[in-house]
Design goal:
alpha/beta, Chemotaxis protein chec, Rossmann fold, 2 domains, 8-stranded antiparallel β-sheet, about 40% helix
Length: about 300
């Protein structure tokens, strides 16, 4: 069962910051309802969600899970109060996604600050935006328990904060992707400082068969020549960005796990990389304290 400590220290800051951000950014008043445990097998997609996956001391996913009508109301209020745009959008198009992404990124940034203040050892991967059931299904595969909290917005409707506790045991069959210490690993980043730090983390974990590239173009060549078992690749680089390099690699290789490194929560890039197929994201900067454990979760 989800412990009282998790409810208080993890979910409560999310509830508080959600309500606060709705007030300050969208001028909407909201309040929380009673939490309840959702049945994983019966959990259904409601139409729009922001998915925030954590790493560190707890492996979980938090969903800002909206009915489409509620998401549209929030997005239109955001557009009115931030951009002074009064035309009412009736579907979640690119403009609406940008408004909702700004809300989601701001909210996650504020919650991250709360977690750091409490020294919880929890960090977030870049958020993902879920528009259909197919995007949600992979998230639910390893979920053991779901705690849901209804958030009611006055005069608008209701949405949910869902805390999904993910099975922390090693993956079963998909562990065929487990990286052996003898396997080759490719690090791609235009910063020699970042490459050096990631390499040091890998060596501390027992992985020493490492090759490096300083941009996406070099990476695509080394991908063919060296055939690495896993790739850690920056997004923003000269000559060829990481998302373009990922696209090139996926033309001939659908299986090699490619982990994107990023210091920017750009929903457009994240969506593109998700569609191409990534093993996940690492949000920079990495430190000596959390770096090895963050890297390790992609190797097991």
């Amino acid at each position: 069962m989800i412990s009282t400590v998790i409810k208080k220290n993890v979910l409560k800051p999310f509830i508080d910051e959600t309500i606060k951000s709705l007030s300050t950014m969208a001028k909407l008043d909201a309040h929380e309802g009673e939490s309840f445990v959702d049945n994983v097998e019966d959990f259904r997609f409601k139409g729009y969600a922001v998915s925030a996956r954590t790493y560190g001391k707890l492996n979980m996913v938090i969903l800002l899970h909206n009915y489409v009508e509620t998401a549209l109301a929030i997005g239109n209020n955001l557009r009115h109060n931030i951009l002074e745009e009064d035309n009412v959008l009736t579907e979640i198009d690119d403009d609406m996604q940008e408004a909702l992404a700004e809300w989601g990124n701001t909210l996650i940034g504020r919650v991250t600050n709360s977690f750091e203040t409490m020294n919880l050892g929890i960090r977030f991967e870049p958020p993902e935006f879920i528009l259909n059931t197919d995007n949600l299904t992979p998230i639910l595969e390893d979920v053991e328990e779901i705690l849901s909290v209804p958030i009611t917005i006055d005069g608008v409707g209701r949405f949910y904060l869902n805390l999904l506790m993910v099975d922390s045991t090693e993956k079963k069959e998909s562990s065929s992707s487990k990286i052996k210490t003898s396997d080759k690993i490719l690090i791609v980043d235009d910063s020699s400082f970042v490459r050096k730090s990631v390499k040091r983390f890998l060596i501390s974990l027992g992985y020493e068969n490492i090759v490096e590239a300083s941009n996406g173009l070099e990476a695509t060549k080394l991908h063919i020549k060296e055939k690495p078992a896993i790739i850690f690749m920056d997004v923003v680089m000269p000559e060829m960005t990481g998302d373009v390099a990922l696209e090139k690699m996926r033309e001939t290789d659908k299986k090699t796990p490619i982990v994107m490194l990023s210091s920017v929560n750009d929903s457009t890039i994240i969506d593109k990389c998700n569609k191409l197929g990534t093993a996940g994201y690492i949000l920079k900067p990495l430190t000596a304290e959390d770096g090895p454990n963050t890297i390790k979760k992609f190797l097991l």
